[in-house]
Amino acid sequence: MLNYFLDLFLKQIFGQPFILMAVIVFVGYIAMKQKFSKALGGAVKASIGILIMGFGSGGLITNFNKLLVSVQTVTGMQGAGLNTYPTMTAGYEKMDAILGAGTGASWGIYTLLVAFILNLVLVALKKYTKIRAVFLTGNVMIVQAGVSTYIVWRFLGLGMIPTVIIAAVITALYWGISSTLLIKPTKEVTNADFTVAHQQMLGSYIAYKIAPKLGNAEKDDIEKKKLPDSLNILQDNIIATALVMFISVVAIFFLIGGEQIDWLRSAEGFNQGGLKNTVIFLLWITLTLTANIVVLLSGVRMFVGELMVSFKGISDKLLPGAVAGVDCAAIFAFAPKSVVLGLLFGMLGQVLALSGLIIFKSPIFIVPGFIPLFFDNATMAVYANKRGGWKAAAVICTLSGIIQIFGAVLAVKMMELTWWQGSFDYSTLWVVIIAILKAIGAALGIPIAG
Amino acid sequence: MLNILCVCGNGMGTSTILKINVKNICQQNKIEANVESCSFGEAMAYINNTDIVLTSPEWAGMLPPSNAVIAETKNLIDTKQVTDTLVNAIKEHFPNEIGA
Fold this sequence. Notes:
The complex is a heterodimer.
Chain A: H1 2-13, H2 17-31, H3 36-75, E1 78-82, H4 84-99, H5 103-124, H6 126-129, E2 133-135, H7 138-156, H8 160-181, H9 183-190, E3 195-196, H10 201-214, H11 237-265, H12 278-318, E4 323-326, H13 336-359, E5 364-367, H14 370-415, E6 419-420, H15 424-427, H16 429-443
Parallel strand pairs in A: 1-5, 1-6, 2-4, 3-4
Chain B: E1 2-8, H1 14-28, E2 33-39, E3 52-55, H2 57-60, E4 69-72, H3 79-93
Parallel strand pairs in B: 1-2, 1-3, 3-4
Helix pairs in contact in B: 1-3
């Protein structure tokens, strides 16, 4: 009898992400004194969102793996794509394979909740911690909490409670410290009191600090110059994702050659024997992978929207004076030309680095992704241009593009995932955090969990 | 009943915060509204059923053509600016929708 209830609560309710997320959203609504019907509606939507995310990420990971397998067959290179959300789900898949279906995401959600509470505590104790910013970007938080959970579990091989606590402490410190660093720079750019809570705060802070040494903000402010409007299309997330994917698939097709393309077309591959024309097949792969990403994003949006209502409500109630940490895109309207500039030079840096991987015969290759390429370099460019003009922003974003790729190679080498975050902080600071956890695990003789 | 669409670059962070704020603003000002959020790249799917699009000037220029009223403000995070922009747009274009 007791076992029946333990199984019901731990595995069926609090171990199944689609139920767990619904419970959290429901409790959040009730705590904010919303009507029962509203709370129930929000809970059902959040639950559906989790499932939609699963459809998108399942399709994406399966389809993308087929491309990676064919590259590996031909070149022996191990590959990984850069995108934040599949990095989380790829980590969960590895945990689920050993711990049982749904475990990864449930542990990740617990890490998210504990890290959010710790973030609030760190701000409440701001007299001692100097941390003033609360992370409110649910879409970023769920990914980072999930990735932390996987890193800690992989190298320390602990059970749920210690894994969640360690992952939450690391994550909450990263959130609090990095977004607090950007309060003053964000004020300079926007003249408003908020900060960025995303995945490149360390990079933006470095850009803010070194830009004055690299250029002249008075003379070279790109916001005072003219740029062609057609460049704006590059900021359309769906079009740009498709474009980056298209270029990557073209490169992969040249690399693997006709025989492997036929294999991809076969029943073992994508089972698209009807698409005999290689160009049409290439377009089909490009747009299918993009569609997988769009489905994943719409699922994330459904539950994150509901989750953020709770987070924002709790933070406003408990810590009315805290600085809200929001998505980096919030600053883009204040410097739209810097955003395009950052994207272009970040791309230049990434192309240079990818060429470097091929020239130096790296055992790992990287398929770039729009999220880390665009959001990171655009954000860093905004701060860099403000402080050092466009020349400083160009230099910083080119370097950042290079660092993103090389850092991701290091991370993939240690994590053995087919996806990685690829953002600046996850190619620098988090590579160090992974290396430290790996060294601790190795020193204690803990085998790699998965 | 008004249909309000909050638009930002990726349809994830900024527009979600904006959606939460707009829902509160509507409640405070006794405006009945459905509030949705998306990226400007996805706006085409919603915009024909939308009365008011709330966004920043950066994205406003890239929206697909429609009959919706476009209300712009630079800082989508600033509740006061958003309130002013939204309430003014409703007063101007949908005066019957604003509660007494």
